[in-house]
UniProtKB/TrEMBL annotation:
This is Uncharacterized protein. InterPro entries: Dhs-27, Oxido-Kinase-like_Enzymes. The lineage of its organism: Eukaryota, Metazoa, Ecdysozoa, Nematoda, Chromadorea. It comes from the Eukaryota.
């Protein structure tokens, strides 16, 4: 069993209705059960490639307390990425032949590692005082392990009317300050991680993780697909991207970027002081 082949659970994953129902009954301490009109909706398409984001309406039966009318399950899988690659291959000259079992198995290892790290971080965030940082309620999280190789997921509160902010959009200074305040809290909280917990974090995210996505001809294929996107309207930009790709995809350099910038800024300060 693995994360890159279809299974019989929710949206072809290994996670079933029974898994989610049992988890919620246990965590919410309720005897209520999911009803015949329960629904699951995939709300994650176009918002990432490493998981299925599933909105659950459980249709609670025999409610014995106040229970969430809806909630979200984030299920780790490669099926979303595989679907995206297949669609690219149909619409463009994207060559997906390099995506073989060896590639997918290597990617799965990193996915599981990242998911377990995410669970570790959330466990620390959940211990923060209420209101310290904005966060959704987490009902249950399941890590991957030797005894649980294919069911990694997070069940969380559903928030509607959420507006995504994309990297290309401008934001206000006040919004940036809010993000920086949260980042400061998280940085301080990271000092509480145990040595064992720190071991699950990668120290070289670009060369250890992102390099998995861009081995072989992946980058070349993405640029080719980008050039053909929108009837070729982006062809000139794709050509420019192709020229600078070797620098962008220098993952070892990217992992050292913080040290490089620190050295650069330090030298600027030293030069300024000397000139004064």
């Amino acid at each position: 069993m693995n994360l890159y082949t279809s299974a019989g659970g929710l949206f072809e994953t290994h996670v079933t209705w029974e898994d989610i129902e049992e988890d919620m009954q246990r965590e919410l301490d309720t005897a209520a059960s999911f009803g015949p009109n329960k629904t699951a909706k995939n709300i994650g398409d176009g918002r990432g490639f490493m998981s299925r984001i599933v909105l659950i309406d459980p249709d609670w039966q025999q409610k014995d307390k106040d229970l969430p009318e809806k909630f979200v399950v984030k299920i780790l899988t490669q099926l979303t990425l595989n679907q995206f690659m297949a669609e690219m291959s149909k619409d463009t000259d994207f060559d997906s032949s390099y995506i073989n079992e060896e590639y997918m198995a290597a990617l799965e290892y990193q996915q599981k590692r990242l998911h377990n790290t995410e669970v570790t971080v959330y466990n620390h965030i959940m211990s923060l005082p209420e209101g310290k940082i904005p966060r959704v309620k987490i009902y249950y999280m399941r890590k991957f392990s030797e005894s649980n190789p294919v069911k990694g997921y997070i069940i969380m509160e559903y928030k509607d009317n959420i507006k995504p902010v994309h990297i290309y959009q401008n934001v206000s200074i006040e919004a940036i300050k809010e993000v920086l305040r949260v980042k400061a809290v998280l940085e301080a909280k990271s000092l509480k991680f145990t040595e064992e917990e720190k071991e699950v974090f990668t120290k070289k995210p670009f060369s250890e993780i992102f390099a998995q996505f861009f081995n072989g001809n992946t980058a070349e294929n993405f640029v080719k697909g980008f050039a053909q996107f929108g009837d070729g309207k982006l062809a000139d930009r794709a050509e420019r991207l192709e020229k600078i790709s070797p620098d962008i995809l220098d993952f070892v350099w990217a992992d050292q970027l913080a040290d490089e910038l620190d050295f650069y800024i330090f030298n600027i300060k030293e030069t300024t002081v000397t000139n004064e």
